């Protein structure tokens, strides 16, 4: 990325270079001519040409380089133009005696100097308000010191010691004005950098102008500079302005320092300090020399002393400015520190508190819990989790869910008046009951449980947000992390027990959790070691008691141990997610085994599918792949699911229905296991992808006991399924009376210990073969 400063630092090229070097050449020619000028007319023509060159250069430079702020250059143009016009008017309209007199010249330049000073002062201004005074005090100090030296070296020998001061005092007008101009030139140097070639040339031209006018002042003493020095100096000064106006750096934007702090940035401190020290020293030496020479007069004392006093006053002013800058910086620093402290407090509050509810977060709870455990006072930690909060987000959106969390937070604050209530994560909260006995904590938990069963007003809705809670009493020697872990165990136990209740932690909870963790690790190893087996329980067609199919049931056989039944590890597998690979293995193994039975005997297989499996995006493709790799036709596979998978489970239900619908289009059939035990609504039987219902064993009449109510329930289920063109399968059949009842009521298939318990693959093959032989022989 290019900047203005980068461009101006490069050497000029093209048309700009041509104009600039042309100005240099013309200036050199005029300088050469200046050494040969001897008449007033020749001097007038030389100055006319020099001033015209400046005017052309300024106008051309502004047009060529287009500086953003050109006011300073146009003021320089006006000053030189007025001086030129004044010289022409005086030379042509006034008598020679007046035209060559010092009074006329002083009047002309006295008018133009303020304009020229303003132009030089505005060159680095760049339109910023108050920028014209930046660096002015330092420049005035340096110029004041230079004035003392100038007076002692040039004015005193030329006018004071020679006694010409009374007759040629007018010669001091222009040099004094040059000193004012020098102040702005020095300021320009202080504010510029090494790439500001144009500004440096303008500053040097101010010094050259002072030199030329000083040389002219000393001509009358007879011991000063020759006249050619003044003439050449005036030409060189204008030439420097010419080159400065044509140089590309004339358009640079030099960054100005803030306030009055300009010297520290540009390294001019040495010049500043040197001037302040040297001025009184040189003044003292000058007065001493004049006194020893016997030429000490009033002007020898007054003028240097006034200049020294001005320098001192300017130093004091500079110190005031620096004090003001320091004070402002101190105020700014104090305000910045205050803002930083406020920001740190705000950031700490935000890091320790929940933005939505304003409740403290996990860090605050942990610190308070650790402090409470170290105080030897009784107390308890209560963890709360909203029941069904995910369903609220799914049904109403996260905005309503956030409103609900805010209302829950407000209610918990009121219920735990004075206790620390924290939001830990999403719909998870905690309450620290410091100083409360177990009895008080128990009573508080019951009160909260009842209060949270009341509806909560949310904009546009009235929602219920019951809670599951885990309660952990403080114990000596326990760490905060241990108490929190135990409270979580109690909370999980409350959720597993049916929710909307609380559980008090005891050691058995931890033992059960550790046992579950150990079981999970063993299940992972069992997958890699092929420790799982599939048993098969026959599905009997009641019309002829022929084995029409089998239900695949997993068993776990650790080496050297007793076989582990499913009820001891299926729930843990579901919670840990291991049911996904385990269920996939059961499906593939069952399809592989039953494929041969189906080819010989037409046997079908029923495989249980967990809700967790149906949440997998690739479940449907996995089933089709298992069928394809085994050769089992899709019509020979029945997937058994529970009612909960298909009813009121939000996005999970939609995904499950999508999987099952896709599989049914390929011929796979679906059965609802444990029908009637989970939901009272039966509308899903009509609308959802189902082919069979399995009558739960709890609806069957007890063996040996007449049960008219059970008969009515079973008949209602069979009739309902028949009306919806669904097949029926009865589970848990154990007696001949139950078989006769089911056959009489029109149930199609049954399974249970009356026919056969689940058996290994070889026994199942034998039973199927025997059943086939009986059917063909009969």
Report on the structure:
The chain has about 775 residues and is α/β, with parallel strands linked by helices. It folds into 3 domains: about 15-135 and about 150-265; about 360-505, Reverse transcriptase/Diguanylate cyclase domain (Alpha-Beta Plaits, 2-Layer Sandwich), CATH 3.30.70; about 515-775, TIM Barrel (Alpha-Beta Barrel), CATH 3.20.20. Helix content is about 60%, strand content about 10%. The chain has an 8-stranded mixed β-barrel with strand order 8-9-10-11-12-13-14-15, surrounded by 4 helices. Strands 2-3-1-6-7 form a 5-stranded mixed β-sheet, with helices on both faces. The chain has a two-stranded antiparallel ribbon with strand order 4-5. The protein starts with a helix and ends with a helix. InterPro entries: Biofilm_reg_signaling (IPR052155), EAL_dom (IPR001633), EAL_sf (IPR035919), GGDEF_dom (IPR000160), Nucleotide_cyclase (IPR029787), Rev_trsase/Diguanyl_cyclase (IPR043128). Keywords: Membrane, Transmembrane, Transmembrane helix.
Radius of gyration: 52 Å
Assigned CATH architecture of the largest domain: Alpha-Beta Barrel
**Helix amount, in percent?**
55-70%
Taking the alpha carbons of the first and last residues, their distance comes to: 97 Å
CATH structural class of the largest domain = Alpha Beta
- Principal-axes geometry comes out as elongated
Approximate strand percentage: 5-15%
Number of helices: 29
Major β-sheet profile:
8 strands, mixed, barrel
- Annotated CATH homologous superfamily of the largest domain: EAL domain
Count the E strands.
Answer: 15
Structural class: alpha/beta
pLDDT < 50 runs, ≥5 residues: 1-11, 262-267
Q: Into how many domains do the coordinates divide?
A: 3
Overall pLDDT confidence? 82
CATH topology of the largest domain: TIM Barrel
């Amino acid at each position: 990325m290019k900047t203005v400063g980068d461009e101006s630092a490069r050497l000029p090229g093209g048309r700009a270079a041509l104009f600039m070097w042309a100005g240099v050449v013309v200036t050199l020619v005029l300088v050469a001519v200046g050494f040969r000028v001897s008449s007033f007319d020749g001097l007038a023509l030389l100055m006319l040409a020099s001033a015209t060159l400046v005017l052309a250069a300024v106008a051309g430079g502004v047009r060529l380089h287009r500086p953003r702020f050109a006011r300073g250059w146009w003021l320089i143009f006006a000053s030189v133009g007025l001086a030129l016009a004044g010289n022409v008017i005086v030379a042509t309209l006034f008598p020679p005696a007046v035209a060559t007199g010092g009074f006329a010249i002083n009047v002309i330049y006295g008018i133009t100097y303020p304009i020229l000073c303003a132009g030089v002062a505005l060159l680095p201004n760049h339109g910023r308000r108050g920028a014209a005074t930046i660096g002015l005090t330092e420049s005035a100090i340096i110029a004041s010191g230079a004035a003392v030296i100038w007076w002692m070296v040039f004015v005193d020998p030329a006018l004071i010691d020679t006694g010409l001061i009374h007759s040629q005092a007018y010669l001091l007008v222009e040099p004094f004005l040059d000193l004012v101009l020098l102040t702005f030139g020095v300021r320009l140097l202080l504010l510029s950098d090494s790439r500001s070639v144009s500004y440096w040339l303008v500053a040097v031209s101010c010094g050259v102008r002072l030199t030329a006018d000083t040389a002219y002042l000393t001509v009358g003493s007879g011991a000063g500079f020759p006249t050619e020095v003044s003439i050449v100096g005036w030409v060189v000064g204008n030439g420097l302005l010419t080159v400065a106006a044509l140089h590309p750096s004339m358009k640079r934007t030099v960054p100005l320092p803030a306030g009055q702090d300009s010297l520290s940035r540009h390294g001019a401190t040495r010049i500043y300090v040197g001037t302040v020290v040297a001025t009184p020293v040189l003044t003292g030496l000058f007065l001493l020399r004049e006194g020893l020479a016997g030429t000490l007069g009033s002007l020898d004392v007054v003028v240097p002393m006034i200049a020294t006093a001005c320098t001192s006053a300017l130093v004091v002013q500079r110190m005031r400015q620096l004090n003001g800058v320091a004070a402002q910086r101190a105020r700014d620093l104090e305000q910045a520190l205050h803002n930083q402290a406020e920001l740190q407090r705000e950031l700490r509050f935000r890091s320790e508190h929940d933005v939505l509810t304003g409740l403290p977060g996990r860090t605050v709870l942990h610190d308070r819990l650790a402090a409470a455990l170290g105080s030897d006072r009784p107390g308890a930690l209560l963890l709360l989790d909203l029941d069904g909060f995910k369903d609220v987000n799914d049904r109403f959106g996260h905005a309503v869910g956030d409103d609900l969390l805010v209302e829950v937070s407000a209610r918990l604050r009121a219920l735990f008046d004075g206790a620390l209530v924290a939001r830990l994560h999403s719909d998870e909260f905690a309450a620290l009951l410091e100083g409360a006995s177990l009895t008080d904590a128990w009573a508080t938990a019951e009160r909260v449980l009842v209060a949270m069963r009341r509806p909560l007003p949310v904009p546009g809705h009235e929602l219920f947000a019951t809670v599951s809670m885990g309660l952990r009493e403080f114990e000596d020697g326990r760490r905060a992390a241990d108490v929190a872990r135990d409270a979580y165990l109690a909370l999980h136990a409350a959720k597993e027990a049916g929710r909307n209740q609380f559980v008090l932690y005891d050691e058995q909870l931890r033992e059960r959790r550790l046992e579950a963790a150990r079981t999970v690790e063993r299940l992972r190893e069992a997958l890699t070691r092929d420790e799982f087996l599939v048993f098969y329980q026959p599905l009997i067609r009641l019309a002829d008691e022929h084995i029409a199919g089998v239900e695949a049931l997993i068993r776990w056989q650790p080496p050297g141990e007793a076989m582990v039944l499913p009820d001891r590890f299926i729930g843990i597998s579901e919670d840990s997610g291991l049911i996904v690979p385990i269920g996939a293995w059961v499906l593939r193994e069952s399809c592989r085994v039953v494929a041969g039975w189906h080819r010989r005997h037409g046997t079908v297989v029923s495989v249980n599918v967990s809700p967790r499996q149906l949440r997998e995006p690739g479940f449907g493709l996995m089933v089709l792949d298992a069928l394809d790799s085994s050769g089992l036709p899709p019509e020979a596979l029945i997937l058994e699911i529970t009612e909960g998978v298909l009813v009121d489970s939000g996005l999970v239900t939609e995904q499950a229905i999508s999987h099952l619908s896709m599989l049914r289009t390929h011929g796979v059939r679906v059965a609802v296991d444990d029908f009637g035990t989970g939901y009272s609504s039966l509308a899903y039987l009509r609308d959802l992808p189902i082919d069979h219902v399995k009558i739960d064993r709890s609806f069957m009449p007890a063996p040996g006991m007449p049960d008219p109510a059970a008969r009515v329930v079973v008949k209602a289920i069979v009739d309902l399924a028949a009306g919806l063109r669904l097949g029926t399968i009865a589970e848990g059949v154990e007696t001949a009376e139950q078989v006769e009842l089911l056959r009489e009521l029109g149930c199609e298939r049954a399974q249970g210990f009356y026919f056969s318990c689940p058996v290994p693959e070889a026994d199942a093959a034998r039973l199927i073969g025997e059943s086939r032989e009986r059917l063909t022989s009969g």
